[in-house]
Each structure stands twice: as structure tokens, then as C-alpha cells.
Design brief:
alpha+beta; disordered N terminus
Length: about 375
């Protein structure tokens, strides 16, 4: 049995208000302030695969620790500057390493869900973002980097502060704290490599790859913020969708073979990051439109993933959607380096939730609130109970 009703989960409200100002019939359009937007799937594929389109969309670095470091994130660089760091990171996403991480995540998820089940068994309710999503996301990043999971609590707090940055003094203090932490960890891993974690791999290969310490530290911070925020946010959005439409949760309880297509369909419907920015370096075709050189282009992944030319019943949740060519992890040279790990993590988390909490339910009286960032679109809290 398939669920084909339109997805009306309240997490789309912010995006709907933004998208309501756009002409959905135009696959490529220009806003009044000169920003170009791509809404269509074929046009997005064409643009994202075009190697003359640049990811260097940031303005020159301003003062402050965060601005200095984020200017060196490889996601904002092109060609060799991008590849030399990306290759070093991608070396940690081998099938063998992912299998090891999967087992570790499943054990951690089962332990967290066991603790949560014990709380809910007393009749209490709790915030599953605080008790499960954030801690597990932090632990996973620790394992990826090769840092003790005991450090996860601190890294999680810093990641939340940095992912919701406000450019105030407290924000820059968090940037200084996490920079000092990774500088210390890098020195430790150089002195004594500690397994196959990313810090040890980068410390060993940096010199030969022409990567300096500032780039290494910036890459660690990028992986912390991007990996932590995306994983935790999407877990909350995924669980909300499944519990808001309870029959979806019941389907997965009855048939675990539906977990993989459910994750892909929810990635499509509830795109973790709604926009990626690019800059044209020369006149660039996107479908029937030629975008001029030297302009900023926003590819609206949330709308691209609901293009009716590619996805039948685009607003419906369908587990029989094959293929499902969503662009939630982007495409081309900047395809998300952690996409495989994200799928492993989501699969492990969802299986642990289904196994440990078959009677999980939403608290009906809660007020759902999302963090103020359009890009992250994460729940601030998600109250649950045992039905």
C-alpha cells in the first residue's frame, strides 16, 4: 500500500512563503535585485555540471575568526584548489570505513533509543532532538574525524552555535574555541596517528598534497558544521514527516525493505538545504535561458526536487518512485562528499527508532519551531511520547 496524498507537513511553511513569491512556471528567472534563480530540474542539472560555473560566491573575507576560516572552506573553491582538499576528505568514505561507521552508529543509536524508551515508559515526554538527534550527529562527526566520542558534547554545542551564526561576539568566541580544539587535536594526531579518522589521514598527507594547517583546520570546522547540522536537522524533519502522517511510520514498521526508498523520498520532499549558490564566469545556458556572465545564481533545490516534468505527483509521498533523481546532495564537482555517510547514518537511526520505539508519537500540543536559517531548516525541538 502506498501513500499518495500531498505532503502537508508543517515544516514546509517557511519555504512555501518564500516560494510563493516566485513564478513556478519559469524554470529560470531573475529577481528584482539581480539574483538569478533556477527552479527546474533539467536546468539545475545542466548548470551544476557546468565546470565554468564557479562556487566561489563569498565576498572577500571580513574580520573575525569565522570569516577567515570559512573563506577557506573547499566548498567555496573551484578546480585544483577544491580538488586537493576534497580528495583528502573523500579518502575517509571508503566502503570499509562506511561499514565500520555504520556498525558504530547503530550501536550508539540503539543505546540512545534505549535510554529514550525508558524515559517514555514512565509516561514522560521528551525532546528527541536534544536526546537523540544532536548527540548522535556529534558522535558521528567525532568518529569520522577520529576524535573521542567523549568530546561530542562540546563539539555539538559549538556546531549549533556556528550553524546558527549571528556574527556577534559570542559567535566568534565559539569559532575561537572550536579552532583551538582542532589545533590541539591536529597536533596530537601528528604526534601519534590514531586510526583511520580524518584528522590522522589529513595530518599524514597534508604536506604531499600542498595543504597548509589553516586549510586543514578550516576543513575540520566545515565538516563539523555541515555534517552535524544537516544530519540532525534532517533526522528531525524525517521523523516529523513519518509521525505526522502516522501511516508512513506504520508502513516502515511492517516492512523494513521500504526504509531505503522512504529515506530517498523524504530527502526529496524535505530537502535539507534548499539552495546552493553559484556564480557564472561566462554566459551560461540553463535550458532555454542564457544567464549572463558575472552574476550570482541560486539553485533552489527544494523546488527542483518537485519539478513535475521529472517527478510525477511531485508534492506526494510515494515509495514506488523509481528512479528518484532528487538533487538534495547537489550534483557535479561539488556533489556532497558526505552523501554516502549521510545515508548510512539516516538508515541506522531510522532502524533504531523503529526497533526501539514502535509506539512513538508526537505530542499534539507542541508548537513546532524551526531555527531561523532558511538554508538549515532544522527543528529547534520535537516533543515525543509513547502512544
Amino acid at each position: 500500500m502506498q501513500s499518495h496524498q500531498p505532503d502537508l507537513t508543517p515544516q514546509d511553511e517557511v519555504a512555501a512563503r518564500f516560494y510563493g513569491r516566485l513564478d513556478r512556471n519559469l524554470a529560470v528567472q531573475r529577481t528584482g535585485d539581480g539574483l538569478w534563480l533556477v527552479l527546474g530540474h533539467p536546468e539545475a542539472v545542466q548548470l551544476l555540471r557546468n565546470r565554468t560555473v564557479s562556487s566561489a560566491t563569498r565576498k572577500p573575507a571580513a574580520a573575525g575568526t569565522w570569516n577567515r576560516l570559512s573563506a577557506r572552506f573547499f566548498i567555496f573553491h573551484d578546480a585544483q584548489s577544491h580538488l586537493r582538499l576534497r580528495r583528502m576528505v573523500s579518502d575517509c568514505f571508503t566502503p570499509a570505513r562506511l561499514d565500520l561507521l555504520k556498525d558504530e552508529i547503530r550501536r550508539s543509536a540503539a543505546a540512545r533509543l534505549g535510554e529514550l524508551a525508558a524515559i517514555l515508559a514512565t509516561g514522560d515526554r521528551t525532546d528527541i532532538m536534544e536526546t537523540v538527534a544532536y548527540p548522535l550527529a556529534a558522535e558521528t562527526i567525532c568518529r569520522l574525524l577520529g576524535v573521542s566520542p567523549a568530546e561530542g558534547e562540546f563539539l555539538g554545542e559549538w556546531a549549533v552555535a556556528l550553524s546558527r551564526h549571528t556574527d556577534d561576539e559570542q559567535f566568534d568566541r565559539s569559532a575561537e574555541d572550536v579552532l583551538a580544539f582542532f589545533r590541539q587535536q591536529l597536533a596530537l594526531h601528528r604526534a601519534a596517528p590514531q586510526g583511520a579518522g580524518l584528522l590522522s589521514v589529513m595530518a599524514e598527507r597534508a604536506g604531499a598534497a600542498g595543504v597548509d594547517d589553516e586549510e586543514l583546520l578550516a576543513t575540520c570546522i566545515l565538516l563539523l558544521v555541515a555534517g552535524f547540522e544537516t544530519s540532525a536537522n534532517f533526522f528531525g524533519n524525517m521523523l516529523l514527516s513519518l509521525l505526522w502522517h502516522r501511516e508512513r511510520y506504520e508502513q516502515l514498521l511492517a516492512d523494513e525493505s521500504l526504509i531505503a526508498p522512504a529515506i530517498e523520498e523524504l530527502l526529496r520532499l524535505h530537502t535539507p538545504a534548499h539552495v546552493v549558490m553559484r556564480r557564472t564566469t561566462e554566459p551560461t545556458a540553463a535550458g532555454d535561458t542564457v544567464i549572463p556572465a558575472g552574476v550570482q545564481v541560486g539553485v533552489l533545490l527544494g523546488l527542483v526536487n518537485r519539478d513535475p516534468r521529472v517527478f510525477a505527483d511531485p508534492d506526494a509521498y510515494r515509495l514506488d518512485r523509481t528512479p528518484n533523481p532528487h538533487l538534495s546532495f547537489s550534483l557535479g564537482a561539488h556533489y556532497c562528499v558526505g552523501a554516502s555517510l549521510a545515508r548510512v547514518e539516516l538508515d541506522a537511526l531510522l532502524r533504531a527508532v523503529l526497533a526501539g520505539l514502535p509506539n512513538l508519537a508526537l505530542c499534539e500540543e507542541q508548537q513546532l519551531r524551526w531555527s531561523g536559517r532558511f538554508l538549515g531548516r532544522g527543528l529547534e525541538r520535537l516533543q515525543v511520547l509513547a502512544a
